[in-house]
Amino acid sequence: MPKANPKKTIHPAQQQRRPGKEGNMNPIPETDPMSTGSGKLKGRRVLITGGDSGIGKAVAKLFASEGAELALGYLNETTDAVETKAEVEAYGVNCLLIKADISREVNCRRVVEKTIKVFGGIDILINNAALHWEQKKFTDISTQQLQKTFHTNVFSYFWITKYALPHMKKGGCIINSSSVTAYRGSDALVDYASTKGAIISFTRSLAANLVDKGIRVNAVAPGPVWTPLIVSSFNQKKIKTFGSDSPMKRAGQPNEIAPAYLFLALKENSFMTGQVLHPNGGEIING
Fold first, then answer.
1. Residues near 92 by beta carbon (within 8 Å), at least 6 away in sequence
2. 121-154 pLDDT, tens per residue?
3. Rounded to whole angstroms, how far apart are CA atoms 141 and 189?
4. HSE of 152 in the Cβ direction (CA atoms, 13 Å)?
5. In the prediction, which pLDDT does 287 show?
6. Is 192 one of the annotated active-site residues of the chain?
7. Which family does the similarity line name (predicted)?
8. Residues ≥6 apart with Cβ < 8 Å to 265
9. Which of 58, 74, 78, 128 would staple 258 via disulfide (CB 3.0–4.6 Å)?
10. Is the peptide bond before 254 cis (omega within 30 degrees of 0)?
C-alpha cells in the first residue's frame, strides 16, 4: 500500500465551461513524459480518441517519445489539440488531428478512414474519449444525458473498434479507458460509472473474441486524475479538494497514468490480454 501524503489536495477555486481548456487550469495538468524514450514504439501507428488533453495527451506524448506516429481524435477543443500536436511533433514524429463528435457512428468511421489514409494502418488503438455530468439525484438523469453519455463513452468504443479492426494485423493491440468508478460506483455519476463498467465487460469479451487473430485487448481504470473534464464538470467546492479522498490524498497527474498504457502497448507484454491496470492512488478494488 502506498504511503499516504498527509496533506490533502487543495486546488484554487476554479470552474470552466464544458469541455474545458487545459491551458486555463490552475495548476496546468502535467503531461510531459517522466522518462526518456528509447524507440520502443518506433514506426507504430496509433489512434487515440480524446487525445487533445488530459490522459490522452499524456499518452500521445509518451508514445511519441518512443517513436510512434499519432492520430488524435478530439471533439471541439481546437486550441488544446493544436498545442498537443506541436508538443507531440517536437519528438520528431507525425501527428494527425481529427475533429469529430464520435457519439455518432458516421464520425467514428470517418476518424478511422482519415487515419488509414495518412498512415495506411493502425497498430495500436486507444479508446479514451469520455464525458460525464454530475447528478446527485438519480431521477435528474435525463434520457438525453443518458444517451449522450453512453454514445460517447461506450458506443464510440464499439464503432471505432469495428472500423479499425480490418486495418489491424496480428500483434496489434487495443487499450480502453475505464475508471475506478466501474468497480466502486459513484453516487453522483451513475450513468458515467455504468459506462465504465460496460467498458470492462467490453474489454474482456473483445479480448476473447480477438485472441485467435493475435490482437490483444486490455484496459486502464484510473482513479481521480487532474484533467479539463474535472474543472468543466464539477462545482468549485468539489474541484478544490478533488482527489483528496484517495489513499494518497491527491489526484493523479495525466503523466502518472500514461505509463500504464505504454506497458500494455509494448510487444514485450504479449501475454497480457483481457486485463485491467489500476493507477488510482492506492485504492484496492479487487477487480
1. none
2. 999 999 999 998 999 999 999 999 999 999 999 9
3. 9
4. 19
5. 65
6. yes
7. Belongs to the short-chain dehydrogenases/reductases (SDR) family.
8. 41, 44, 46, 63, 124, 173, 175
9. 58
10. no
Angle at 89 between CA 62 and CA 265, to 5 degrees: 30
Identify the pLDDT of residue 242. Answer: 85
* For the chain, domain boundaries: 40-277
What average pLDDT does this structure show over 52-66?
A: 97
Residues 6+ apart with CB under 8 A from 262: 40, 41, 59, 62, 63, 66
DSSP string across 121-142? S-SEEEE--------SSGGG--
Give the three cell numbers for residue 65: 517519445
The cell 484496492 sits on which residue? 284
Convert the pLDDT of each residue in 168-182 to its tens digit. 999 999 999 999 999
Alpha-carbon distance of 99 to 101, in angstroms, equals 7
CATH topology of domain 40-277: Rossmann fold (3.40.50)
The one catalytic residue among 74, 91, 157, 192? 192
- Average pLDDT (11-39) is 82
Q: Report the C-alpha gap between 224 and 283 in whole angstroms.
A: 11
Q: What are the two backbone dihedrals, phi and then psi, of residue 265, each rounded to the nearest 5 degrees?
A: -80, -25
Residue predicted with more confidence, 229 or 222:
222
pLDDT averaged over the chain? 92
32 phi/psi in degrees, rounded to 5: -70, 140
C-alpha cell at 137: 439525484
CA distance 125 to 132: 22
Question: What is residue 237's predicted lDDT score, i.e. its pLDDT?
Answer: 80
Question: In this structure, what C-alpha cell is assigned to residue 48?
Answer: 487515440
H or E stretch including 110?
helix 105-119
